[in-house]
Amino acid sequence: MKVLAIGAHPDDIEISCAGTLAKMVEAGHEVVLCHASDGDKGHYEIPASELVPIRRREAEQAGAVIGSRVVSLGLRDGEIWPEQEEIRLKFIDLMCTVQPDLVITHAPNDYMPDHNALSRIVFDTTFLATLPGASRQHKPAAKVPALYYMDNLSGIDFQPTLYVDITATFGTKLEMLKKHQSQLVWLKNHDNVDILDSVMTMNKFRGMQAGCAYAEGFIQHMAWSRPNAVRFPV
């Protein structure tokens, strides 16, 4: 099975669903990691011209931990706009080239504008990519993929419909997240969050709900054609 995980910024995927993705890779599935923005505004001291290549390198290193391809759409922080045609086309082309069976992305009620905008774009373009002529460069996607939302940063107003036991891959998740050193600093400075401790707390909480040591939670999008016969591959 081909799984496409899409985050607004480098490190979003690692925070919310890397343990599950590691399990998918171990099970033999192909996992592609995509971040929409280059994360150019994610540091107080490092200018964007220097930060973008740093964050791209961090994302590549994180993907390499599980042997997954990493794709960047090259947008900028705060500029993920669902109504802009050229941005939608980037996502349509992504769907047409990856041809995913299953897509994981942000929930519509996440905590910041880029995440919420991305959720809408992914919902729209996973369908639009199947239409003839939707892409100017590629053949249409073969099908509308199953769509799952990954947990938001603190689980507020997020009630999972699926839990994945990541006890065996939690260490791998932390290893991937630690590759994003620039963001460990940024989240501490901007939000006063120790993201490693936060992730551990969140995954232990989901694990308590699911009856295991560590878990990640997901919500399946239940619109017509979305709850298809594709099995969540873990």
Automatic annotation (TrEMBL):
It is an enzyme of class 3 (hydrolase). InterPro entries: GlcNAc_PI_deacetylase-related (IPR003737), LmbE-like_dom_sf (IPR024078). Transmembrane segments: none annotated. Pfam families: PIG-L (PF02585). The keyword Hydrolase applies. GO terms for molecular function: hydrolase activity. Gene3D superfamilies: LmbE-like (3.40.50.10320). SUPFAM superfamilies: LmbE-like. Keywords: Hydrolase. Its EC number is 3.5.1.-. The keyword Hydrolase applies. This is PIG-L deacetylase family protein. It comes from Paenibacillus residui.
